[in-house]
Design a protein that fits this description.
The complex is a heterodimer of chains A (704) and B (272). Chain A is α+β, with helices and mostly antiparallel strands and 704 residues long. Chain B has one domain. Helix content of chain B is 87%, strand content 0%. The chains are: A alpha+beta (704), B mainly alpha (272). Chains A and B meet through helix 8, strand 35 and helix 14 of A and helix 1, helix 2, helix 3, helix 4 and helix 5 of B.
Chain lengths: 704, 272
């Protein structure tokens, strides 16, 4: 009995111990950001334009599924031959593939792939293509079978040896002479989605990337005279005098991609973003108040800024750092502090065509030899590509399937930062690299104006939420996911208010940091932050191709007729009111009555197919000759609606949406209607057109 | 003469412009958006303009082309009058009758010169351009920075402008030769001009470039005014319109100056 009791006690305590560890393991699993641990050794062979690499991958199964295989991206095979998905897709639009010369292709070969215990996985290796339309010869996705499935909560370690031929840049990654930009260069596991399997798409023309968060340690061996920049923080430098090489080690946790660049031409400049110098306490208080959170939660951290810039652009170093500082400040204040120690900003090596692209903790900008101060280049690309560190870098959406979640949101954010930090920027015409802003006066604009102007023409092609490679064309992809999505977000901001929009964006960022959010997650945050249901907004403007166009169809204003023509029964007699009689009566009335009563009839119409929804309505304003105004609201559901007013004044004009809330309206011109036409602005425009026609004819005559 | 040139240019431009004016007026005159147009170029109304008229852009190009061709023929016609009157200036005063008489007299000859010049332009800008581009490409092929590209593209542009100026100058002298020599033989005049230019190339070209520089200076002066001048009210817009017309007049005046200086150079060389 005593023994039985002790045994039960032992079992009890054992059970407690096991459950404690189980709970701790579950908590540990929930706290764990990175699914993968990479350690990569790579050597750059400058002469042969090759990379020789070894890679250890420790992959953690944080799902409940048992996983029998692993899918990996081999993105460099997109540049192997004309059979690849990227080249096939680009040929349809007359891009890319046409300019690849002999010897300039790129590829990646897996020399060996084994488990940590030495089991060879190469015999089971096969290339997989599943994206419609099929490109069966594409080799950018590979699959290997695992001898034993990876159980939930367990890890598997792969050891890979690979060799890559660096392409003469076709898309984003490559070389020119001895300058390199290396991206999407290592075998990278796809994202395993619980219950759905591997999310691992081929390299598409109109798409970017998707991967799991990981901890990286990368050892890069390059010639000793090469300056290098990479994702993360440099933690070691090991020269090898005999080989005349240096091995640079970079480390970074909690990122989902790793890119690097090297060239003997780079100038490397480092500065610190010191939060206390860039942000005053009043700014912290203001933001904290708007967000309804304590000031401590909005405090920014110091960040080491690293710039690699071409020697011919060194006159623009200050512009680069100022733009990056502004980006760190405002993205940090509005959306959450930048969580990494370093940010590397790269002026892309000449002719590597790697500019304007983002990678976690590293991005490429791009500038020119001569830049005008009023033109916000390179500032706009710096702020935009840095911003991707938030939208895509931290909130790691699937760029294949929901590209607008980073491109559209970031285009919206970029516009706001530029407006705050710089105000209006000028358009930048140039001829042969010489900016003309010095001799002509280019028009100035805010980003949201340009976003709207470019996006109103594209609505009928594709919904914003289309899978990237399914868009009608590269143009439709770009205009929809960047500019139309941004315009919709600006509209949403004007509907809900700036402060509420700020809360939406910050909540979305902070809630989904280090996660893979979807469109529905964003919609849920919008509904939660506003306390209203805005699902209709996304249904109408993101998931559809409906044109939004409300306008004033007609405006009539006239004196109310006191008497009408015809025969009337007055005092038992039939009295005929003729036109003449009415005019006589009217003349008599005018002597006694100060002002006539006027009728104003306004008809508003829904010209487009997209509608308002929820509790939102359209504001209608009518202005009268006596200076008064009337305001009405319309829910915009029907095709048209009439509004009638009786006042002692005639109307001068009617206007819907006078506050310019609905930026997605494709025709702002019909939002207002005046009684009396005016032509001052038309005169100005047509005199300009006349002048240019005269110049055109004069140029023609020069050939005579 | 200047007035006739300007009038022709202005009337043709008005003809081309008229449909656009009515189109824009119809869509914008009763909208408050047109008030924004007074302030200058703004992306809101520009975006609406592009949205409304995007489908008619191909038609616009066609509409510009046909009157353009007619204007070109008109200009060839008027050139006869200009050169004819310059050549006869010492003997007769310029009046409407003798100006248009010269226009008619020299029209077919100048038309033939124009057709020959098209052949020359095809050679210069078709074949010559490829050769020049290939030469510049050799220079920029192995460039390791942007500088060679920017320098070469601008040098290439300059070379084309200079080649164009030589071709233009040459055919101006052909026309002058036809008038001075009172000849109808276009091909013969072209060949003799080759010899004339061959003997006097640098002086003729320097003179031509000197007059061209005046045109460039006029252009820079106009751009300077355009950049500095605010156009925020209708009165200022109208004043600027007049300045634009003065600039157009300056271009025409420069064209007449080209002919005048070339005639006098030709005549002096002929005498000597």
């Amino acid at each position: 009995m005593k023994g039985k009791k002790s045994f039960c006690l032992l079992l009890f305590f054992l059970g407690l111990l096991v459950s404690t560890f189980a709970i701790r393991g579950e908590i540990f699993a929930q706290e764990r950001i990175s699914t993968i641990r990479y350690e990569i050794w790579v050597e750059l062979d400058d002469q042969n334009k090759m990379l020789h690499g070894k890679e250890n991958i420790i992959w953690f199964n944080n799902t409940k599924d048992e996983i029998k295989d692993m899918w990996l991206h081999l993105y460099y095979n997109a540049f192997k031959n004309e059979n690849s998905t990227v080249i096939q897709e680009s040929k349809k639009e007359g891009l890319l593939g046409v300019k690849v010369k002999e010897g300039e292709w790129g590829w990646i070969d897996i020399k060996s792939i084994r488990l940590a215990d030495g089991k060879d996985l190469k015999p089971s290796m096969e290339f997989v293509t599943k994206d419609e339309p099929l490109h069966p010869s594409d080799q950018t996705v590979m699959r290997v079978l695992l001898p034993e499935p990876v159980k939930a909560g367990k890890e598997v370690e792969l050891r890979i040896e690979f060799q890559s031929k660096i392409p003469r840049t076709i898309l984003r990654s490559g070389y020119y002479q001895s300058s390199y930009f290396i991206a999407q260069w290592f075998p990278k596991p796809g994202v395993y989605e619980e219950g759905r399997g591997w999310n691992c798409h081929e390299y598409h023309l109109n798409s970017e990337f998707y991967a799991d968060f990981a901890d990286f340690t990368v050892h890069i061996k390059v010639p000793e005279n090469f300056v290098i920049g990479a994702s993360g923080k440099q933690t070691d430098v090991s020269p090898n005098k005999a080989q005349k090489t240096i091995t640079h080690t970079f480390e970074q946790n909690n990122i989902h991609d790793f890119a690097w660049t090297t060239s003997p031409r780079f100038i490397k400049v480092e500065r610190d973003f010191i939060a206390d110098e860039e942000v005053i306490s009043k700014e912290y208080e203001e933001i904290a108040s708007k967000l309804g959170i304590p000031s401590e939660k909005v405090k920014l951290s110091n960040v080491r800024m690293i710039l690699l810039i071409a020697p011919e652009h060194k006159g623009q170093i200050e512009r680069h750092f100022r733009a990056l500082s502004m980006a760190l400040k405002y993205y940090g204040l509005w959306y959450g502090p930048y969580p990494y120690e370093t940010i590397t900003m790269v002026d892309p090596p000449f002719r590597t065509e790697s500019g304007g692209m983002e990678y976690p903790t590293l991005f490429t900008a791009g500038t020119g030899l001569i830049r005008n101060k009023r033109v916000l280049s390179p500032e706009s690309v710096i702020i935009h590509e840095f911003g991707h560190g938030y939208w895509y870098g931290l909130c790691a959406n699937n760029e294949f399937e929901e590209a607008w979640l980073d491109e559209g949101i970031n285009t919206y954010s970029t516009g706001k930062v530029l407006a705050k930090a710089y105000g209006r920027g000028a358009l930048s015409p140039s001829i042969n690299g010489i900016p003309l802003a010095g001799i002509i006066k280019p028009p100035e604009y805010l980003d949201y104006e340009l976003d709207r102007a470019t996006s109103i023409n594209i609505v009928k092609y594709d919904p914003i939420t289309t899978f990237s490679w399914h868009f009608f064309s590269r143009g439709s992809y770009g205009l929809n996911v960047y500019f139309r999505a941004s315009t919709c977000l600006h509209t949403l901001e004007r509907v809900v208010g700036e402060d509420v929009m700020l809360r939406i964006m910050r909540t979305f960022q902070m809630r989904f940091r280090y996660k893979h959010p979807h469109t529905q997650d964003f919609i849920d945050v919008v509904n939660e932050a506003t306390g209203r249901d805005f699902t209709w907004f996304f249904q109408e403007y993101f998931f559809n191709t409906l044109n939004f166009d409300y306008g004033i169809s007609s405006l009539r204003t006239y004196e109310k007729p006191e008497n009408l023509r015809g025969v009337f029964d007055i005092g038992g007699k039939k009295v005929e009111f003729t036109k003449k009689k009415i005019e006589e009566l009217k003349a008599e009335e005018k002597k006694s009555v100060e002002k006539e009563v006027c009728i104003t009839e306004v008809r508003v119409r829904r010209f487009g197919e997209a509608r308002l929804g929820g509790d939102v309505s359209l504001k209608l304003k009518i202005h009268f000759e006596d200076g008064s105004e009337e305001v009405r609201f319309w829910n915009g559901q029907n095709r048209w609606e009439n509004f009638i007013f009786e006042k002692q004044a005639k109307a001068t004009y009617a206007q819907i949406d006078p506050d310019n809330v609905w930026l997605i309206d494709s025709n702002l011109t019909n939002n207002s209607l005046k009684i009396k036409p005016s032509r001052g602005g038309i005169f100005r425009l047509t005199t300009h057109i006349l002048f240019w026609i005269q110049n055109y004819l004069q140029c023609l005559s020069a050939w005579s | 003469m200047l007035l006739y040139l300007w009038l022709a240019n202005f009337l043709f431009s008005l003809i081309i412009l008229t449909p656009f004016y009515f189109l824009i007026s119809n869509d914008f005159s009763r909208s408050m958006m047109q008030d924004q147009m007074v302030k200058g170029l703004e992306l809101f109304w520009l975006g609406d303009l592009v949205y409304k008229y995007q489908n008619i852009f191909p038609a616009i190009f066609g509409w510009m082309l046909v009157p353009g061709i007619f204007f070109l023929l008109l200009y060839i016609f008027l050139s006869g009058g200009i050169i004819g009157r310059i050549c006869a200036l010492q003997e007769e005063k310029i009046n409407l009758r003798n100006f248009f008489a010269d226009c008619g007299k020299y029209f077919l000859r100048f038309l033939r010169v124009f057709l020959i010049s098209i052949l020359a332009y095809i050679i210069v800008f078709g074949i010559g351009a490829r050769v020049i581009s290939a030469l510049f490409s050799l220079w920029t092929k192995g460039a390791s920075s942007e500088w060679p590209l920017v320098v070469s593209s601008n040098l290439k542009l300059l070379v084309f402008i200079l080649l164009f100026s030589i071709a233009r100058m040459f055919f101006d002298y052909v026309k002058i030769s036809l008038v001075v020599e009172k000849s109808r033989k276009t091909v013969k005049a072209t060949i003799s001009t080759l010899s004339f230019i061959g003997r006097n190339f640098f002086k003729a070209w320097l003179l031509y470039l000197g007059v061209g520089l005046i045109a460039v200076l006029f252009g820079l002066f106009f751009l300077g005014i355009a950049k500095l001048m605010a156009r925020t009210s209708l009165i200022l817009v109208f004043i600027f319109f007049l300045i634009q017309q003065l600039y157009i007049l300056s271009r025409m005046w420069t064209k007449i100056l080209f002919f005048s200086t070339e005639y006098h150079f030709f005549w002096l060389r002929k005498i000597s």
